[in-house]
Amino acid sequence: MVSNVSTNTFAPSLWKRYQRRLAPPLFVAPALIMFGIFVIWPVLESLWLSLHDWDGIGENRFVGLDNYVELFRDDPVFWTALKNNIYWLVAFLFAPAFGLALALFLNQAGLAMRFVKSLYFMPFVISQVVVGLMFGWFFNAEFGLLNHILTALDLPKIALLEDERFSTFAIIAAGLWPQVAYCMILYLTGLTAINPELIEAARMEGVKGWKLLWHIVLPQLLPATSIAVIVSVVGALRSFDLVSVMTGGGPYDSSTVLAYYMYEQTFGALRIGYGAAIATCLFLLMDVCVVIYLLRSLPSNKR
Predict the structure, then answer these.
(1) Strand partners, 100
(2) Do the beta carbons of residue 257 and residue 85 sit within 8 Å?
(3) Mean pLDDT estimate for the chain
(4) Domain edges within the chain
(5) CATH fold for the domain made of 73-302
(6) Most CB atoms within 10 A, among 52, 97, 157, 257?
């Protein structure tokens, strides 16, 4: 009887003694397990697969770094896709600025303004495939609305999606439309959390206009800015659906991006290992961009 009592009281006393140490790992463990299964393990599997030559059916043959050597030395399409991804990245970095400008303009009360806000947010709600189809029709060389407008202005027609020089930038314009809308919503949410007392105090001190925006408003919008920049970077580098719908990477692979080229090599050419190598390069590029931004945005780096 004494042993049972001591055993029953030992476990509760042990839990109470180490509760503060054990509780956080126990709460975090499910999330870490899910993250490891669905993120870390696929990344490691993709890295390992990029070192092999495999068509998805036959023998999986280890080739070491041959896929990467071919990628960087003998594949001009890869460099075209990488260059286009840089174009996407640079253009999408303007999305937070445009979104902030729209948010400042729309940050007003009233039923009519709510309707206007919903119109501006609608592009983000629409599927990317639908956006691609809409802009594909808009830029169409034969019946597109753009050429109808140019004809009405007595200007020559232009085939943006069929021209190697302009196809990438036409797709980027289509991608910016919903991205700016998403950044706008982030900033509208951030503007609702701004401390009005700071605004009033700054105005009483004679601060207004650009100084008020730069020194009072923007510092309070830093969390929204961080999310907007990171989401824009990731959205630019993972661009796929608009390229697939609007040009299919053409003409002559001039508008292809890394994600679409990975898809072509993996499921079109059945080069699973080569596609995994492209995915690895895209993953590293995305990580580098996000890490650089996070390091530059740390408080210790602003002193």
Answers:
(1) none
(2) yes
(3) 86
(4) 2-49, 73-302
(5) MetI-like fold (1.10.3720)
(6) 257
